[in-house]
Amino acid sequence: MISIRGVSFHYQNGASKDAGPAVLDNISAEIPAGQFVCVLGQSGCGKSTLLRLIAGLSLPQKGTLTIDGQAVSGPERKCSVVFQDYSLFPWMTTGKNLTLALRNAYPEKPRQEIRRIAEEYLAAVGLPEKCFHLFPGALSGGMRQRAAIARVLSVGSPLLLLDEPFGALDPMNRLLLQDMLVKLWRDGGMKRTVIFVTHDVEEAVYLSQRIIVLGSSPGRIIADRQVPHKIDGRHSAGDRSIFDLPEMKEFQNNLLTLYREDILRRLESGSMQQNGTGI
């Protein structure tokens, strides 16, 4: 269980260490173990910052953030992160990228077992055997992202955080990796909690059981919705016919309306302040 209560965050203004503008303001949410959640919002609303706080890469100035009852105070093995930029060491082969992570996670395991696990997870994300010996630069963008996902899955972390991992991919690879992620989450032997950051409404609806929508300036929760097409928390990868359902079209339109209304409120507020009529 991830518990976020009254969390606020701001970055410091350079060397002065004065508080800069608020990035997140009074964020509260409870995320049960095994749930697939998308954090949805426009660029600059604090989605990635929220993910960094959950990962322990940054700490909130206000509020509390706990995982399984323990306060988050820094990065832990129970949490793995996939970034948009593939995050593989370019001077290591794909296989060594995985085995390095596995040796750190399981120092007691023999090398042959580490190698077997790495090969198993590369196969699970659809990469051919030859990729084990190739450097990341020899792989396509989609293949590098598959390898990055294989690496974080292989270490067995119960919490998987993904920060717009498919944003730089072409549309076909993006669809294929969406299906792959759903299948791995649904059918994996260990049911992980997944928090997936995106600004794409359709991607959020397709992937997740639940969508948390952040408004911006500062980031705050403006909606927290269960996705209606998920039955008993499970669905089939590749079944995009859900977007033809009237209730799904209405659900997507409601999310888009939230976006538009939040943008208009921010623009109106900014205009009032410029004219001297703001509070």
Tell me about this structure.
This protein has 279 residues and is an alpha/beta fold. It has a domain at 88-156. 37% of the residues lie in helices and 24% in strands. The chain has seven helices and ten strands. It has helices at residues 47-55, 94-105, 111-124, 141-154, 171-187, 201-207, 246-274; strands spanning 2-13, 18-31, 36-40, 62-67, 70-71, 79-82, 159-163, 193-198, 210-215, 220-226. Strands 6-7-8-3-9-10 form a six-stranded mixed beta sheet, with helices on both faces. Helix 2 (94-105) crosses helix 3, helix 2 packs parallel to helix 4 (141-154) and helix 3 (111-124) packs across helix 4 (141-154). The longest helix has 29 residues, at 246-274. The chain is globular and about 60 Å long. It starts with a strand and ends in a 5-residue tail after the last helix. Residues 271-279 have low confidence and may be disordered.
Concise description?
With 279 residues, this protein is an alpha/beta fold. It has helices at residues 47-55, 94-105, 111-124, 141-154, 171-187, 201-207, 246-274, and strands spanning 2-13, 18-31, 36-40, 62-67, 70-71, 79-82, 159-163, 193-198, 210-215, 220-226. It has a six-stranded mixed beta sheet with strand order 6-7-8-3-9-10, with helices on both faces.
Order of helices and strands: EEEHEEEHHHEHEHEEH
With helices defined by DSSP (H or I, 4 residues minimum), what is the helix count?
7
Helix content: 25-40%
Low-confidence stretches: 271-279
Mean pLDDT: 85
Describe the sheet with the most strands. 6 strands, mixed
Class inferred from helices and paired strands:
alpha/beta
- What is the count of β-strands? 10
Radius of gyration: 20 Å
Strand order of the largest sheet: 6-7-8-3-9-10
Shape: globular
Distance between the termini: 39 Å
* Beta-strand residue fraction: 15-25%
